[in-house]
Amino acid sequence: MDALRERIAAELVAARERSHLLTALEDRDLTTQVSPLMSPLVWDLAHVGNYEELWLLRVAGGVEPLRPEIDGLYDAFEHPRASRPSLPLLPPDEARAYIGTVRSMVLDSLKDLREDRLFLYEMVIQHEHQHDETMLATHQLRKEPSGLTDRPADDPTPGPPFPPETFIPGGPFEMGTDDPEAYDNERPAHVVDVPPFFIDTVPVSNADYMAFIEDGGYARAEWWDPRGWAWRCEKDANAPAFWFREGVWLRRRFGDVEPVPPDQAVQHVSWYEADAYARWAGRRLPTEAEWEKAARWDESAQRSRRYPWGDIYTPERANLGQRRLQPSKTGSFSSGASPAGVRQLLGDVWEWTATDFHGYPGFQVKPYKEYSQVFFGPDYKVLRGGSWATDPAAARGTFRNWDYPIRRQIFAGFRCARSV
Ligand code: AVJ
Ligand code: FE
Which residues fall in a compositionally biased region of kind Pro residues (predicted)? Predict the structure, then answer.
């Protein structure tokens, strides 16, 4: 139990250091809105503390609200992102003081930690990291340099050569998990029979994607879902977000302009762009079940793993955790391959799947319906795997993310599949 308390405390501290790093800006850069898609950074900052107060102090600890008058401001369902800059939000210093007070009470509360409350602590740690990734997307939308450090030295040496696609035999596999610390939408574990298929060994690269553009990918409706074509026409989209052409393809990344590196996974594409690319390539997006089977299923042991490479996380196996501010070269991290040999399933870029976000058979809300359940339905597509910006605390073979098919400020790319 002591080791557990120490681990939880360390993870809370690490998440908070990250939040502070992402909000180490002038006040006006924290309070202004970069895009109607995003909250002002100061909203995310106070929201993570308010969420922590709600779940760990009030619900788990039975403590009275510290500042009940601010709850409404930080309720994501009361105020859509576009309206948040006009709210009487706590100014940056007050926000930092408030979340600091909550945090010291939470660290204190760890002395009474109970096994059945562990899920709430894990949930709060993941929640802060999820907002940190959202804050990174806000930074990426800003035109100014972010001041964040990239560490290209972390780039692993390229792995051995790999086949362009990997065969996954047909048959049942265990999807999802019964882990009590997983989110409700990952539970329960259940058997899914998946017909045989091929899946790309690595994510679609910028060079691959450029070939689609050169071939008139954005000019021909035939490759596009009709709603995707309407989106691309309305937006006049001709390339991934943040790309522009000056003889060669350039991209803006955290305020700097640089040539698009051909051998990295493409990112900042919408589901509609991924879907159009796949059709152009004579392929399709993998279903969510196919993605998870390729990522977790160990055919010889007849079991699903937590991570593609095994059950224990080690940092050298995937580009996770904001160690660098971009995807790595496609084909790297061969030591993180799944049993079937598929690479870079975790980290680098979130991967769009063909599947709408729904609860698994036997889904039960835990601990509140606004985490997952209210998003179930045809409006959201599932993304898998986590990006370079995802913390390992919120990355595993069962983790499910979701977003609208038009969104591309998130760090999302894709890989293709085909039926046999
Ligand atoms: C799972 C990333 C879609 O950011 O909207 C944050 C996570 N839920 N606060 C989001 C979340 C509540 C969620 N995503
Ligand atoms: Fe939240």
Answer: 155-166
- Among the listed residues 271, 310, 182, 282, the one whose alpha carbon sits nearest the alpha carbon of residue 223: 282
CATH number assigned to the domain covering 2-141: 1.20.120
Q: Which residue's CA is the closest to the ligand 1 atom numbered 9?
A: 127
Per-residue pLDDT band at 48 (split at 50, 70, 90)? very high
Question: Which tens digits make up the pLDDT trace of 123-180?
Answer: 999 999 999 999 999 999 999 988 898 876 455 666 788 999 999 999 999 999 999 9
Task: Tell the residue number behind the tokens 């690319």, with chain if given.
Answer: 277
For ligand 1, atom 7: residue with the closest CA: 130
Distance (angstroms) between ligand 2 centre and the Cα of 163 equals 40
Q: Do domains 2-141 and 151-420 have the same CATH topology?
A: no
Q: Three-class SS string for 82-120?
A: HHHHHCCCCCHHHHHHHHHHHHHHHHHHHHHCCHHHHHH
Could you tell me the residue ranges of all domains in the chain? 2-141, 151-420
- Residue range 151-420, CATH number: 3.90.1580.10
Hey, is 370 helix, strand or coil? coil
pLDDT digits (tens, 9 = 90+) for 232-244: 999 999 999 999 9
How many A from CA of 195 to the centre of ligand 1?
32
Looking from the CA of residue 400, the nearest atom of ligand 1 is 1
Query: How far, in Å, from the CA of 257 to the mean position of ligand 1?
Result: 29
State if pTM tops 0.90: yes
